User: What shape does this take?
Amino acid sequence: MSARREGGGGGDRPWWHGAVVYQIYPRSLCLADPAGRRERLHLAPGAPPDRVRDGAGDLEGIRHHLGHLAELGVDAVWLSPIFPSPMADFGYDVSDYCDVSPLFGDLAGFDRFLAEAHDHGIRVILDFVPNHTSDRHPWFLDARSSRTSEHRDWYIWRDPDPEDPSKPPNNWKRSFGEGPAWTFDERTGQWYLHLFLPEQPDLNWANPAVVEAMEEVLDFWLARGVDGFRIDVAHALGKPDGLPDLPADKAEMPYSALIDEPSTHPILKRLRAHIDRWPQQPVLVGEVFLIDASKVAPYYGDGDELHLAFNFVPMFTKWSARSFRRRIEEIDDFLVPIGAWPTWVLSSHDRSRHRTRLGGSERRARAAAVLSLAMRGTVFLYAGEELGLEDADVPPDRVVDPGGRDGCRAPIPWTCEPDHGWALAGSEPWLPWPPSPQTCNAGTEASDPGSVLALYRRLAACRRASEALRWGDLERLDAGEDDVLAFARHSRSGRGNETAVVLVNFAAETTRVGEAELPAAPGGWRVAVSSGGEGAANSEGSPFAETLGPEEAVVLLGARLTHD
Ligand code: NOJ
Assistant: This one.
């Protein structure tokens, strides 16, 4: 373990407080070892090529780029599922929780990756998909083999209605496609529940055998040294008694975006107590897809449930100071009072990248980067956002995802060469490249101090060096301009008192912000980071210009004040 990891969160803080976590979608990061893959898959030399298989990334590709992540300054990576899977939902349909898919590598390769990540001071968080398995998981194969099989009650089954056997047991809708959340199993004559695809049957968490089996899964990976888990649809584990119909006004929405059952909380508390016994201080970060801070807050429990819950609301927020002000108020209203540590997420593998969503402008994407990396909380970056990537344009014949999310999953370009650093030998990657890969790639951007990558590196370094930015409280400020979002971050520690001020100009015009509107800083405010770009008014290292360029965002630091 490197010194940086032992350093943890500083003082009594857990390591994830203020951390920057980098999400990797393993199919999309990089391909390094296509020959190893063909061997693991036992493909004959003349086996016909398959773009979605052969053009996907692998664990070796991720390992090769750990240096990039260390230079970027991330504290941890979260890997979307790497487990064996028929890939109906590209890995979120797990057929073996305790192995690595031969598409990506093997357990020995994973151990090598983990050790190297730790050597770089980077922790590793795995995706834990407990709500459902693949329909090809041995548990489900056994469950559907007969009504009396050992694993039958590991899933959720209902008899058909004798009056109308073609009618599903209730009106819940699944995610992806328009259909019901139920599929009829001809062989055993009952319906099974699946909040997602029919290939993703829901586990029955009311069955203690399921809980125990899943705790064993966590232990399997924790024993290998992983640093935590991202829990897929964490809010859906408990199902309502009797599985009642939804009221008609809600029935058209996928049930996975609505379910919010009290019975989920004891399950999550038990998982938390289970992992808390491990010495590496593993983190549990839950996907609570309820898009409402007041509904997400209870999933932190009384400090005994999720350590972190994703705050997805910013992904559904329009680009305006007023809207983002509201996002900060919600944290103050619902998380701060219960002592819950917030998170910030702008992009992920499930939604259009924020640059694309916010209109495609690089200037705006830069301002968004400053905003998210200066927030109080744990920040989740989605691989490629540090390059300013936009969604790929995916023509109909290249669409592969049942949820239509291909654009944000495009492969990451590493160099300006035609293969962009992927070992493709001239063949195509699993999805088309994102726009402008000749210039928007890690190699080209690394040598350009004005690039988006250079901005992310400076932001992460600034956050790491400043206790105020990493852990400090957040105070909302009024900068005297509606279009300028302003807040201060304050810390008090043995090193002294520190304040950082963050200003984001959402307007497309230059806007004045006088020092009189800011907290007093003896010696004045210095620009630590400016989002820069077209029309920027501030240069880093200089005194604050009291003006922000169009859509310019800045982090200002004053002199550190020692305790009196
Ligand atoms: C949420 C994941 O982020 C998404 O990619 C997946 O399709 C669903 N959960 C189902 O597992």
Observations:
- The domain at 24-134+229-388+397-458 is CATH 3.20.20.80 (TIM Barrel).
